[in-house]
Amino acid sequence: MAHAVAVVGTGQTKYVSRREDVNIPEMVREAAQRAMEDAGVTVDDIDAVVVGSAPEIFEGVNSPENWVGIAAVAAGKPLMRIHTGGTVGASTTIAAYYHVASGVFDVVLAVAYEKLSDGIAQYGLSACYDPLWDRDFACGAPALVALQTREYLARYRNKVTEEHGAMVAVKNRKNAIKNPYAQLQLEITVEDVMRSAPVATPLKLLDCCPTSDGAAAMIIAGDRKARKMTPRPAWIAGVGTCTESPYVPNVDMAYPESCVRAAQQAYQMAWIYDPLRDLDMAEIYEAFSFQELIWSEALGLCEPGDGGRFVESGRTAMDGEFPINPSGGVLSSNPIGASAMIRQLEAATQVMGKAGEHQVPGVEKAMAHSWGGAIQFSTVTVFSSRL
Amino acid sequence: MEDVGVVGWAQTRYGRALVDETPQSLIYSAVTGALDSSGLSIGDIDAVIDAGSDFLDGRGISSCVTVDAMGAQFKEESKVAGDGLLAAIYAYMRIASGLFSSAVVVAYGKSSESSIRKQTRTMAEPFYLRSLGLDALSAGALQARSFMRQYGIGPDACAAVAVKNRLAGVKNPHAQLRKEVTLEQVERSPEIMSPIRKLEACPITDGACAVVMAEGGIARSISARTAWVTGIGHSADAYSPGVRDLHRAASAKRAALSAYKMAGVNDPLSELDLLEVSEFYTYQELMLYEALGLCGEGESADILKAGVTGPGGRTPVNPSGGVLCANPLVATGLVRLAEASAQVSGRAGDLQVEGARKALAHAGGGLAMQTAACIVVER
To answer: Is residue B178 located within the same domain as residue B31?
Structure first.
């Protein structure tokens, strides 16, 4: 039987397009230090460290955990790095979860980071494409997600419009204003989004996430310690991950099966029957605006094709019945390797009641989602105020 | 905590440059081989934990394109960026949690496709270390000097490790180098980075390894000869070689102590029947004798000379021939687990250490053995 596991402390750095005052280890230490302070623990209390980062070609250092992880208090401790593309921040927390659920460790620091200003993000992402077949026409992430968006819009051409994507962009940038860590805190209109420059049609500039420097950290603890550390830990009630082959003709990008399955797994573990009813809010990995609609459908928050109506109805707004991305989401800050952990961190913080100005009242259960690779890796984590 | 056993394993053929293989073909062959040896099929497997290196593969998120070959389609899958033995530790924790009943662990490396020295040079951070030209070999040479000077260990003692392991490798059907060498040949081989000579360094190898792990009930139902995982440990040292006592493998010592504590091993020399360790260079095996508790400080050359760690000795180290006979980078440590599991389950063929019941598998990582992972397996 798995040991009960909770998030007992969190820390993040202010997300900006370029941190010039720190290098990567210093930035990671900043987040780790804040998480330890939040949990009321010191370096000596940490039994093991799990580090997550996206392709190390971003920073150009091979096995960066040996450099960065040490700054995050791992010297003399067990250290492991997870690397699962865009989902890596979440996969890192999930690995930390198993460190504790197995009974091997009691208190684990999970930390994820990216300093995209140190490299060229889209060049790094293009290096994911096959060197023999794909790299000649590789053009980073927007091209891939533009294909996904086209497929989605084509399937529901009578129900979803480009304006629906714009509504997500407006909503999340507005939410970000209340999140002191967010990078893009913007009051914009649907018209602003529609008029912004095309990046990869139908994606326009304001449909896209920024590139960010930043790190996020969480302290994960087993039940006995967790109860002592904080009066209201965020229990990890369900975790699910699923991986799908990248062979594009086989992948339904408008309703990715890996996401559906990861959600089923996590919901089953957390006793969630109807996610819209049983959960109070969600943090969804929307690197591009339309993805919030696509994932809402795959996560079972609305019916396939109803994603547009879902955002238009205002139900997912900050004051709606089911707020999505009160933090501002990935559209407001995207330090890639950390982004999936930030979703979990925000969901956990909401459950702990410590989200400050963007706190949704009365959150008991919250979900965090992420995607990665060629729309092929999915993770879902459910946090609960009760064990 | 649930019982966890290693129930199957396979290694691909190894070669200096397997130009007719892709990472995917190597992975597929290792995974199907490991499943066959376990008696389980891919449909029985709950999770796939893989190890790979983006830098070695020359592409970002290398696990994107190996999903099918690993058998991970629509499964729980995660990639550990580091040696495959760490992936095995992660798989162990997943199964020990009771939430998974079985896992495939797979690691691969095609070192032939890049320059290993340039590749390992990127392990140095860009501000201080990289401009020094540190890479795996030069960091190893610095460490070898430091270790030899500290304990007055002569080059002949290091060379004797190569003689021992290359002789053992002759019997290993998986080994890439299967030709014995004499002490004289080792000592006369060119210095590639003083004091390390060519025959004291591991070869460059393409290849893959996979193991299948399962919880107790499944393990018992499919085989009477499971290699039970009774101890795990991993650890990291400070990053900069300049702030470490380079003559000590401190991370290996801590990793081993954790694994021994969990497995109830008090005196490894008398309780372990063999060890499979990751000695990328000869001196590392000697350093590991100390770190893994086989001898006291500065006594490593003595126990080697006395034949304690040799074939037929009290506690043979690297009966497979070790990394000096094949180094499929990233898979290197996982191969140690496959070999140790084969030994304690009595399935090691020509390499079998008679009556082996308990063994340690070790993996090293980082510049000058900065990190280590250990697993104790027993019958």
So the answer is: no
What value of ipTM does the predicted structure carry?
0.97
User: Of B82, B122, B255, which is closest to A60 when you measure between CB atoms?
Assistant: B122
C-alpha closest to that of B24 among B113, B110, B112: B110
Q: Give B-chain residues touching A83 at CB under 8 angstroms.
A: 54, 61, 63, 79-81
Say how many CB pairs under 8 Å bridge A and B.
183
Same domain (yes/no): B215, B338:
no
Residue linked to tokens 């990890």: A236
Could you tell me if B215 and B252 lie in one domain? no
Quickly state the pLDDT bin for A248 (edges 50, 70, 90). confident
| Cβ pair B123:A78 closer than 8 A | no
CATH code of residue B257: 3.40.47.10
Q: pTM, whole model, 2 decimals?
A: 0.98
B339-376 core/surface letters (b: 16 or more CB in 10 A; e: else): bbbbbbbbebeebebeebbbbbbbbbbbbbbbbbbbbb
Q: Do B85 and B160 sit in the same domain of this protein?
A: no
By C-alpha distance, the chain B residue nearest A85 is: B61
Q: How many domains does chain B have?
A: 2
Taking the CA of residue B147 and the nearest CA in chain A, the distance in Å comes to 20
Domain limits at B256? 116-203+228-378
Q: How many residues does chain A have?
A: 387
Task: Using CB atoms, pick whichever of B67, B122, B371 lies closest to residue A62.
Answer: B122
Residue from A83, A91, A100, A236 whose CB has the most chain B CBs within 10 Å, to mutate: A83
Q: What is the per-residue pLDDT for A137?
A: 76
Q: Where are the domains of chain A?
A: 5-121+211-229
**pLDDT tens across B33-76, in order?**
999 999 999 999 999 999 999 999 988 999 999 999 999 999 99
Do residues B99 and B149 share a domain? no
Nearest CA in chain B to A126: B60
Nearest CB neighbour to A85, from listed B64, B127, B234: B64
A128·B82 Cβ contact <8 A: no
What pLDDT is recorded for position A54? 86
CB contact under 8 A, A55 and B254: no
CA angle, B148 as apex, B147 and B153 as ends, to 5°?
130
pLDDT tens digits along B90-133:
999 999 999 999 999 999 999 999 898 999 999 999 999 999 98
d(CA B364, CA B379): 24
Separation in Å, CA of A333 to nearest CA in chain B: 21
8 Å CB contact of B97 and A101:
yes
Check CB contact under 8 Å for A95 and B233. no
Interface touch A85/B61, C-beta < 8 Å: yes
Interface check for A1 against chain B (CB to CB < 8 A): the answer is yes
Task: Output the pLDDT for position A134.
Answer: 81
> Tokens standing for B58?
């020359």
**A129 or B291: whose pLDDT is higher?**
B291
pLDDT at position B44: 97
Mean pLDDT to the nearest integer, B294-308: 98
Query: pLDDT tens digits, residue range A297-346?
Result: 999 999 999 999 999 999 999 999 999 999 999 999 999 999 999 999 99
**Domain A5-121+211-229, what architecture?**
3-Layer(aba) Sandwich (3.40)
Closest CA to B65 of B111, B118, B108, B9: B108
Q: In this structure, are B196 and B306 located in the same domain?
A: yes
User: Among B166, B191, B222, which residue terminates a domain?
Assistant: B222
How many Å apart are CA A361 and CA A318, to the nearest integer? 10
Largest Cα–Cα distance of chain A, in whole Å? 59
Q: How many CB atoms lie within 10 A of CB A151?
A: 15
Query: Sorting pLDDT into bands at 50, 70 and 90, what band is A122?
Result: confident
CA distance A89 to chain B (A): 12
Same domain, yes or no: B90 and B150: no
**Residue B256 shares a structural domain with residue B337:** yes
Please report the pLDDT score of residue A130 as a whole number: 80
